[in-house]
Amino acid sequence: MQKQIDYLRELAAAASEACLVHAGATVRIGSTALRNALGVDAYLPSGHAYQGYRALWLRDFVMSAPALTLPGDELITTARLFAASQRPEDWIWHNGHVPAWTPAEHINLDGGHCYYPGSYFPDERQGGRWGPYPPMDNAFFFIELVYLAFHANGDAVLHEKVDGISLLERACRAYDAVTYHPDTGLAWSPATKRAVDFGFCDCVHKIGQVQFGSCLAYRAAVCLAEMADAGGVDAMRWRNTAARIRKHLVPTFGTTSGFLNAATDVCRQRDVWGTAFAVYVGALDGDAQDAACRALRDAYRDGTAVREGAVRHVLAGDDWSKDSAWEYACAPIGTYQNGGYWLTASGWYLYALAQVDAAAAHDMLADMLAHLRATDFRNSPDHRGPHEWHTPGTGERGKAVNLTSICCPLQAMEQIVNTGI
Asked: How far apart are CA 330 and CA 376, in angstroms?
């Protein structure tokens, strides 16, 4: 196992260098020269030499940071940067509604704040088809970013102020920027206030209470409880919030198959990523966790969820129609989040497999490593992996040298080893 983890660490280190734009440096992405004026080193989601993404994404940074073992001061500086993007009042226009205290989804290298996917416009040209409200996971990943900075630097970080408001208070206010169902406390995306629950499903139109967003809310509440204790304020609200989410998660989204559904109204389908993530963050226990792990094991064995160690959002046999894996998605079937296979979720899936079937976990790990080695961008100029996503057999693929595609599996593998599963 150590040999495999060493390879993943080396690949993650190399990929991070390919994605890094040092403060003050200028890079060329496509035909555009961009200078990093943020005052902090920026890790872009994918390799900038391969026409990758052109901004610092909050979720990608937070999902990758633990595997990169970044220095504590870099985490604090990045937390301050996103804290400064929180507006103290709602920002409303014909195309969007950004609730107060929502952090930016991504920040352009010139400092412009973008709250919606699919746009580098920091003004009212952003929004549109992505929903009237920005992705709710921005709030949860900001909370986790403050949590990472707190763990790396100590309690004093929580009291650091940006525009007169502490990072701990800003994290609490970010949680309240999201809409929750009044009966369950679960993350809620009603038709009139639709919001993407997780950016790696930004092309999917989920309506109702949403499972992945609820698992992110659960993890955020756990982080807030620990930070509240350390910061000398009452943590009971956050403990109760986490407990309430756990209480309602399976009754709201559970199925007889062991999988959790993605949403309660539109896209009420078995969610492969969401089920694996619920296990990974500890949102399930007892029979529900065992059933979820076994469902994921069976889907791995019958080839409906995993190919070449990468994971599909929807089981191959659950496609909504011949034109879409999801009930409603704006990407062609078989591509992107609508049937593409992603390594970002592979670590969560491996973690769940390891709970119930070590042999299955071993086989999936071998498949994943074979894919990574075959596509490793260090092999030659023609190799550009790990990719953001790919479609086996067609050659279609997403952005090159994608950071979460290696960092998320590495983090999960280290957790598997550290917990002795």
From this structure: 30
